[in-house]
Structures are given as C-alpha cells and as structure tokens.
C-alpha cells in the first residue's frame, strides 16, 4: 500500500517534468542464444532441446521452455516484436551470445559462425536501414569463451557478416581484437566504443598471463583521451561486465587485475562516458561506478536476455527469466540516457495462449527518478537498498517477472552489493557491512519507511 501511494504522488511531478525535445531512442538486445535443436527430432525424448542438459521438459511449448535456450519461433517473435513496438530506432545495440549452452563438441566453428549468420540475417531483414552496434559474447567463439587476443578466423568471418554495420577502420580493429570505435551515426561529437571484454573473462585461458590482451585497454584509453580533447560524448558497449553476478554471492566474471583496470578506465574517463550497455547476465540489473570521494560517475545497464534458459551455475536457485528486450531513450545531442522501457514475453502465457509482448516497466515511472543519469541511478540503488517495496519491485524485474518470490535479507545483500560495488575489495566490504546491519537491531531506514508507510495509509 505504502508503495502505491508514493508512486502516485511523485509520478505527477515526473510526468509533467519530462521533456521530449532532442529525444532519440534505440533498441538494446542481448543473449539471444538460439538453440537450433529445439523441437527438431526431440518430440519423443524427455527433453525438447539439447541446451536443457537432459533436464526433462514435459510442458515445453512452441515458443520455448524455461530450461532451454531460444527456439527459432521465439527468436522470430522477439525480432518481430521489436519491429512492431519501435520499427525505426536510431540504431540497435546487440551485445552477443548467439549460440546454445551445449558442450563444445556439439557445436564447432562452422556451427558458431552459421548461428551468428542466421541471427545477423534476421536482424538485417527486419531492420535493413538501421545501424547495428554489435559486440561479441563469450558464446560467439569455438571453443566457447576462448577468445584469442589476436587475429583469427572467427573475428574475420564475423567482420564479414557484419560488414554493412562496420566502417572500414572498424573492420580492421575488429579482425585483430574483436573491438572497434566509430562516431555514433557519423555525427561529430558523438562516439561509440564496442569492447571485447571476453578477453577479461576468467574462463578465457588464452589471456590469463597477458597484461593488456589485444592492447585493448591501451587502445580504449587513447580513444577516450582523444574523445575528451575533441569534446565527444561516448557510449561503451560490451558483453561480459565487470563486477559481480547478483544472483550468486562472490561470483565475479573478470580476472581481478582486469577488473581493476576496467574501473580505472571508467574513473579516468567518466566525464566523456554517458552510458555503458552490457549483457551476459540474462537478468535486468545495473552497476554503479563512483569517484574516489564517493560521487556517482557512471552507470552500466545490464539488459535481460531473450533466452529464458535456467542457468546451471551451482548455487543459483531458480535462475530462469522471461524473454526481454529494451528501448533506451536518450538525448541526441548530449547522449544523456533519459529513460529505458523493457518489454517482455510471459513464456508460460504465450505457450498456452498466444505470443503477447507487453511493456514490463519504464524506469522513471517505477523508480521515481527524472532520468537514467549516474546521479539518478544512484538514487535508484538507494531506494532499492533502503525500502523493501523498491527492493521487491527491482527483484521481480531482475528475472523479467519470472521469479515472484520474496527477496530475503541474503538476497538483498547479493543484489545491493553487486550493484554498488564493482570492485572486488569494495564488494567484500559491502557484504560484511550489510550482513552486520541485517542481523543487528532494526536499521534506521527500515524504521523510517515503516513510519512513512503509516503516514501514507493514514
Ligand atoms: C515470424 O513472426 C511473424 C510475426 O509474428 C509471423 O507472421 C511469422 O509467421 C513468423 N515466422 C516464423 C518462421 O516463425
Ligand atoms: C541459417 O543459415 C543457413 C545458411 O548459412 C541456412 O541454410 C538456414 O536455412 C538458416 N536457418 C534459418 C532458421 O534461418
Ligand atoms: C558513415 O559514413 C561511412 C563512410 O562515409 C558510410 O559508409 C556509412 O554508411 C555511414 N554510416 C551511417 C550510419 O550513416
Ligand atoms: C504469466 O502467465 C501465467 C499464465 O497465464 C500467469 O499465471 C502468470 O501470473 C503470468 N505472470 C505474470 C508476471 O503476469
Ligand atoms: Zn548469455
Ligand atoms: Zn555471456
């Protein structure tokens, strides 16, 4: 009850204050993970797909199953939903992971390239005149996650598949390291940097003892320094994010040295970086970056996946999600991220009735902030951390309305600390601090929200 009233009152201000001037929008899609085996010849086996890893799927439907990666029907449905909801975005951000979660022996280099090709083709056929900024995911290589810090056949073939989306100079750096930069839509003062952060993934054995794999950090540092000199504003795009997974305690993705260097890059260049757009989690979350004196300097948006696949990562309880896709609204001159709207498919409903893509939520409406700037996203994490209503709301969005159970105090710590602290030491400290607070006397914030709750009811 308390939540509803607060939202109603504050919304009046926010909706009135929203300005549509200089507003542009773009799609962000990620983790499509097409499973070509879905349904094909599996009708009589316990599982309808290979990506379930032999977990039985008795109720699997045409559109998909929570234990499986995406069926082609689901891929097609999500692409058509994009075309229907926002047919003419300024551009599309696509952050990788195209292939199914199956053992390497079931895929091979040719299959990986074919799958990347099929997904590239459907995006191109529906958005033939739209620029796509596309990053490689750790599943877009064979063997998976083993992205080399140098030229190889997959980078080359992918550069060819994405030829229409890459300027000539981008093709060259992409072939060498899987990364590139260009002016955003060829506009002076605006820039996109697409990173290959798979080079920093701790599963990648090829980059383990390399200080700066593919010289990407050095390159990005120079690009961002030049951007500052030229008064440019920049969006950073990538797949594997730094920091920790919010659904499992103490689970980082980057090697520690790479994690440090990434944070260092953001702290040095935050003035030109207006947003970071990543995937890999399949969940809906975000990450905060702070200056050494604690002010919010950058936000990284983690967009949910199209695949509903329930993760097999040990320690994650019910890690599936509904398929999600997201529109960002931004200021076309300053690149300020103004808002984001997430759309989703209730897979259960879709399989028993018909495909229904619906709006899940709009950030500014649900979290009562004026935009998605670092300062506003800092307010969002403060609300999530201090108010049970916001925590629960955030938690349901995290799995795209799949897991509607309560986020308990351990769950709160996992989510709050992974959002706030991308740094290894900072995260560790946060977990300790929040743990003590949770078991100590009633925290002040809880008391305050109880009192304000009573006021609103009265
Ligand atoms: C793709 O989706 C569209 C829109 O829902 C539908 O008309 C078409 O038949 C689908 N194609 C396939 C191959 O599923
Ligand atoms: C995927 O691409 C291959 C060619 O590389 C083509 O033969 C096949 O029909 C495509 N599959 C789909 C579902 O589009
Ligand atoms: C940007 O300019 C290049 C080179 O002139 C051109 O090939 C490309 O189509 C342009 N891209 C966009 C998105 O306008
Ligand atoms: C999804 O659909 C199922 C079946 O209609 C329904 O029981 C469930 O409440 C729906 N979930 C949400 C979040 O609306
Ligand atoms: Zn993925
Ligand atoms: Zn991934």
- Attached small molecules: 2-acetamido-2-deoxy-beta-D-glucopyranose, zinc ion
The computed structural class is alpha/beta
Q: What would you say the CATH architecture is?
A: 4-Layer Sandwich
Rounded Rg: 21 Å
Q: Share of helix among residues?
A: 25-40%
Low-confidence stretches: 12-17
The biggest sheet amounts to: 6 strands, mixed
The domain count comes to: 1
CATH class: Alpha Beta
Strand content: 15-25%
Query: Major sheet: order of its strands?
Result: 3-2-1-10-11-12
How far is the N terminus from the C terminus?
11 Å
Q: Write down the oligomeric state.
A: single chain
CATH-defined fold name: Purple Acid Phosphatase, chain A, domain 2
Please identify which CATH superfamily we are dealing with: Metallo-dependent phosphatases
> What average pLDDT do the residues reach?
93
Q: What is the compact description of this entry?
A:
Helices cover 38% and strands 16% of the residues. It is α/β, with parallel strands linked by helices.
């Amino acid at each position: 009850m308390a939540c509803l009233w607060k939202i109603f009152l504050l919304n009046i201000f926010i909706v009135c204050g929203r300005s549509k001037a200089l507003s542009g929008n773009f799609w962000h899609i990620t983790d499509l993970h097409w499973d070509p085996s879905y349904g094909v010849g599996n009708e009589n086996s316990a599982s309808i797909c290979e990506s379930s890893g032999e977990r039985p799927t008795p109720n699997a439907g045409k559109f998909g199953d929570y234990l499986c990666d995406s069926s082609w029907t689901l891929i097609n449905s999500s692409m058509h939903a994009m075309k229907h909801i926002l047919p003419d975005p300024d551009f599309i951000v696509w952050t990788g992971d195209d292939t199914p979660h199956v053992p390497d022996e079931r895929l091979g280099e040719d299959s990986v390239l074919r799958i990347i090709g099929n997904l590239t083709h459907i995006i191109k056929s529906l958005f033939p005149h739209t620029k796509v900024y596309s990053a490689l995911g750790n599943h877009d290589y064979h063997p998976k996650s083993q992205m080399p810090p140098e030229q190889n056949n997959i980078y080359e073939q992918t550069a060819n598949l994405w030829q229409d989306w890459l300027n000539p100079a981008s093709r060259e750096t992409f072939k060498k390291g899987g990364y590139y930069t260009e002016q955003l839509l060829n506009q002076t003062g605006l820039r996109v940097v697409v990173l290959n952060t798979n080079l920093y993934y701790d599963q990648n054995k090829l980059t383990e003892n390399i200080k700066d794999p593919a010289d990407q950090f050095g390159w990005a540092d120079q690009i961002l320094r030049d951007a500052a000199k030229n008064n440019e504003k920049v969006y950073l795009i990538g797949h594997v994010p730094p920091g920790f997974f919010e659904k499992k305690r103490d689970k980082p993705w980057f090697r520690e040295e790479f994690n440090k260097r990434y944070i260092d890059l953001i702290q040095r260049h935050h003035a030109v970086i207006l947003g970071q757009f990543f995937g890999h989690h399949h969940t809906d979350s975000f990450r905060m970056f702070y200056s050494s004196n604690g002010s919010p300097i950058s936000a990284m948006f983690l967009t949910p996946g199209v695949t509903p696949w329930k993760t097999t990562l040990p320690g994650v309880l019910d890690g599936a999600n509904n398929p999600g896709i997201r529109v960002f609204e931004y200021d076309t001159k300053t690149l300020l991220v103004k808002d984001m709207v997430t759309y989703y498919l209730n897979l259960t409903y879709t399989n028993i009735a018909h495909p229904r893509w619906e709006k899940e939520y709009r950030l500014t409406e649900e979290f009562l902030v004026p935009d998605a700037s670092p300062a506003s996203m800092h307010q969002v994490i403060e609300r999530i951390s201090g108010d049970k209503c916001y925590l629960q709301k955030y938690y349901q969005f995290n799995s795209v309305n799949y897991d509607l159970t309560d986020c308990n105090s351990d769950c709160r710590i996992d989510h709050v600390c992974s959002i706030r602290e991308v740094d290894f030491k900072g995260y560790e400290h946060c977990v300790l601090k929040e743990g003590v607070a949770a078991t100590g006397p009633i925290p002040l914030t809880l008391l305050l929200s109880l009192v304000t709750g009573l006021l609103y009811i009265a």
